Amino acid sequence: MSKTTRQVTALTAALLVVAGLAGCASLTTESRRAPSTQSATASYGPNVVHFDGLRDIQFGRSLADLTSQGIVRVSEQACGPRLANIPEAGPVFAEGKLVLLWFQPPFATPEGVQVGTPVSDVRARYGNAVDLTPPAGSYTFPGLLVTSGDRAYLFLHDGQTVQKAIAGYEKYVRQLFETGFGSC
Hints:
Layout (H helix, E strand, L loop, with lengths): L2 H30 L16 E2 L2 E2 L2 E2 L4 H6 L3 E2 L8 E2 L5 E6 L2 E7 L15 H7 L4 E3 L10 E6 L2 E7 L4 E8 H10 L5
């Protein structure tokens, strides 16, 4: 190997080492940055119901606030407050706060679960889903409960497919399943 070839090889190796170190420094700097201040819901599409709510409609917001912003409409003819321009999702309020959302297609969870999803797919997508047996003598469907902190999804099913999908606070989801909370 000639002296020039050795010099070029050494220079190339040195450049690769420097480039590699620069990449590591970049990764290290990136990993030390403060977490994004962007909303956790910003990564969800417009038809996704997540543990925080739907679009800019978060669980825990007051009926008065949602009504004043035109997000919810209250009508004497309706069973209860309704979301303006979103007929596929039904809100349930307790103590003046949004606590549950019933939803149907095109709305789905981030994992793609919605009314009509096979139960086997729900179990595959949510390995931590808990089976709920309806109270004796009730007409309630069996349920699959998925929780995250104080939030939950409840998928009521006929043994084959999801028939009803609900998201909200776990306390109210369980109350709905056990006693029919939120019905007219």
